[in-house]
Description:
Layout: E1 2-10, E2 13-19, E3 24-28, H1 35-45, E4 61-69, H2 74-82, E5 90-98, E6 103-107, E7 110-112, H3 114-124, E8 125-128, H4 139-150, H5 153-178, H6 183-200, H7 206-218, H8 220-236, H9 242-259, H10 264-290, H11 295-315, H12 322-337, H13 339-385, E9 392-399, E10 411-418, E11 426-427, H14 428-431, H15 434-447, E12 456-460, H16 468-481, E13 486-490, H17 494-497, E14 502-510, E15 515-521, H18 524-535, H19 542-556
Parallel strand pairs: 3-13, 3-14, 8-12, 12-13
Antiparallel strand pairs: 1-2, 1-4, 4-5, 5-6, 6-7, 9-10, 10-11, 14-15
Helix pairs in contact: 4-13, 5-13, 6-12, 7-11, 8-10, 9-10, 13-15, 15-16, 18-19
Amino acid sequence: MLTHIHIRDFAIIDQxxxxxxDRMTAMTGxxxxxxxxxxxxxxxxxxxxxxxxxxxxxxxxxxxxxxxxLNDCPAALAWLEQQELSDDRECLIRxxxxxxxxSRGFINxxxxxxxxxxxxxxxxVDIHGQHxxxxxxxxxxxxxxLDDYGGNSAEVARLASLYRDWKQQSAQLQRLRDAADDRVAxxxxxxxxxxxxxxxxLAAGEIDxxxxxxxxxxxxxxxxxxxxxxxxxxxxxxxxTAHDRLSHISAELQHLADLDPALAPVRDILAxxxxxxxxxxxxxxxxxxxxxxxxxxLQWIEERLGTIHDLSRKHRLGAHELPGLLQTLRxxxxxxxxxxxxLGQLETDIERLREDYDACAKTVGKKRRAAAKRLNAEVTSxxxxxxxxxxxxxxxxxxxxxxxxxxxxxxxxxxxxxxxPGQPFGALAKIASGGELSRISLAIQVVxxxxxxxxxxxxxxxxxxxGGAVAEVVGRRLRHLGDVRQVLCVTHLxxxxxxxxxxxxxxxxxxxxxxxxxxxxxxxxxRVEEIARMLGGIEISAQSRAHAREMIDRGQHSDQPGQSxxxxxGGRQRKARA
Length: 578
């Protein structure tokens, strides 16, 4: 749900903060006051294209921030989690445009590309009355709306899974068939490579041990000479070894410590050093006894290392990876040897998957056609109430010839309309005008209120070209749509505004050098004044105020409309919250 909008230096708005609530909110004001500027600002925040013309004259940049409560929008929560942009169950979107033409977008304080703003915006808000943000014109959304209405979610998910498995298996089968001509040559090469690696018989970790042994054997002379020299200096020399000198000093300190106990710690350290030198000499002696000069072993190791590194270069990988490569080549060779068996199994699996897909697609198609028939009747009925006499709504559910499977089934779904008797059906975007498209969308949203995935609906001048009783019907429909969705309606008709749960007034203040737009929430009395103003007349009379109050009272106590639009997928609309 949209909770607030903050606008700074956008168009004729210097600074504006709007707090929004659930249910239906009407936004009214005199012509030119800037009612639609708020909708434009929201569209900009959600990724619409921007230019420097949107920046208020004399300002360096325009900035729009919008906040959302996501408790009623799991799809947006999931998207934010996937993009690592989540911040509990709230979302703040910010868009900045500067005079150099640079534009930046932020989600929960983190910079994002415009595409991210657009993707998230399509999950949060649907703006009707203009072609931007109108998901109703997209065929994938039309299909999704029909499936939601018909209760097809589980079957469509299974259909997508079957299609994905079928495509993967088919691609694998094609790869095996394409490789059939090269199979013999590839098998021979693999056999040679496997035999070569098996003869090497390189164990995991062996390369480290033979590298270590090679370093030792290659430097055995130096190691032996240096160790013997050290042993002579420490212990085995004829005179003045480290052990002899330390022993002599230690004996002297033993006598001195008897005279002064303060020297006892030094005496003990030297006594320990004598023991350590003796142990070090023993270790060196054992090491030199084991150290061998073995030219034959060294030659064998150098030849083996040469073979290992030759194979590493040949296969373009590290020596440590050769044991793993052997298993990979064995697996590929085994696959080629048993390719015919695998081909037969794949063909069987693909045939079964296609049969399952066709059966599931048939079920989905049948449910889609049944749902389309019901939805056609309900939407057409509401269109008559909304002043589109003679208009008919029809969902085309068609299968191409030959059928082309997809992850969504075999049918092409297209929402069409005939706006006048005798006029052929055509796609919404081509046949309906802006005002008609808004009312068609309203009719569909009313019917699908319990299945729609988008929590906030904005109608900008949805009542264009209507009046009187039809305007009151539009208002009533919007009000009851507000029982299950957040609805924001920009309107110039008192019959529509009187039906709203809340009312915002947009006003324009013209100063000597600038023009500003302001907005305020109306209390009961102020609302009566605004509805009376909208009813017309040079002066607001007691009669027009009484009429306005009557309209508002009638709107607050309006009866629920008929069955059309009151049921979603086997569900009932939520009761309006106080």
